[in-house]
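Entry 14. Ran structure prediction on the chain below.
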Amino acid sequence: MEKSWKDYKSKGFFDESITPKGNPRAAASRAINFLKSLSAPELAERRRAAELAVKEMGISFTVYSEGTNIDRAWPFDFIPRVITDREWSQLSRGLLQRMRALNCFINDVYNEQKILADGLVPADIVLESTNYLSPCVGVSPRFGAWAHICGSDIVRDHLGQFFVLEDNLRVPSGVSYMIENREITKRVLPELFENYSILPVDDYPLKLYETLASLSPRSRRRPNIVVLTPGIYNSAYFEHAYLAQGMGAELVEGADLFVGDDDCVYMRTVDGPARVDVIYRRINEDFMDPEAFRSDSVLGVPGLIRSWRAGRVAIANAPGAGVADDKVIYAFVPQMIQYYLKEMPLVKNVPTYLCMRDKDRDYVLDNLDKLVVKPANESGGYGIMVGPHSSRQTQKKFAKLIEADPRNYIAQPTLSLSTAPTYVDGAIAPRHLDLRPFILQGKDSWVTPGGLTRVAMKEGSLVVNSSQGGGSKDTWIVESKS
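Output, structure tokens:
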């Protein structure tokens, strides 16, 4: 296996663990040197141990395929990704800054709409967006926070510089896998935890509980918090159950709740109705309340929005937060930071072309083979075209889609995503990756020390989503001197 490390090269890309000369980076040196000391059979045994841990811990996710739901074991790579605390400190400050600005924006567009009146963000792309929900107009949630949990996708370019690729402000998922990745790695590589000072991630359920509790409309020592799930067939149900258990909260479905004549939300229990203070909702806004949104929804709670508007219950993330979870709106976040906070952005956006602009659209249509094209409101890696990896036929298809609905498409340069050593088919090879840290905002704000690192397991692939064949690995934030 030593031969694999000697042959390891990530040509033209920034590698998280190995320098261009083939030496381990300082922060990752202990981990890499330990892995280099293992023989091929020993590495294979660690891989089997990881697979066994995933199976024993029951970690799975659901893939929707041709009308069926398939539960699959969580795809995990045991070689950790290592980031220094110095790098992380700067990035986390930038993420907190970004979260504050995004919440200011959401609160503004549902109330005074100053940023629209000042022309900084075109009013039509906000007010005509499918994510702009009129039942939310005039509401100002506690602490001005609409998006209480955000999962921002971070990438590094060929120079190692961090960029925000997108913000997930509706129902961001993946945090349970971040925590479980750490547990698996402890089982598989226990020797490394004796020598490293790695920032912990297992306190996330407590931090989430504190964030949600701070939103309670009632002053109680222990507010009644519930996690609202669509049910066992949802792709993230494992996470819903995991977080409810971690917080000591009830996991409920819509049928378990009702809104009383006093506009309060109640949970049905064997001892009678129990008032609910905070709902951590893991269902899409469309299905939350058949009175306010989709009348055919059986997943939501009739009257829930009425209760929320009356201030009788807190909902996280608040309905309407998705107005900022739009890849077109994303392009304006640096301006929002300057507008609301009077600060310069601490972490950059990826350059973005908006197809609704004539000049941008012309450029995109002329360069489809070089760009990544994304629909404004899809998630999970669906509906994306990676130009350099696409066929001429696919490019023609996307050209028609863009021309038919330019507002719904953006394009970005094909980034040289960073790589990290990954155990694939019995060998060590570079694979592209991204990172999803989670940012909490309630009374206080907090960023996970690390996040969910997602890996494109196929050689040369830039698609990291688990639903698209990607995997994940543990993320270590370590002291810079390590």
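The mean pLDDT is 92. Will compare against last week's run tomorrow.
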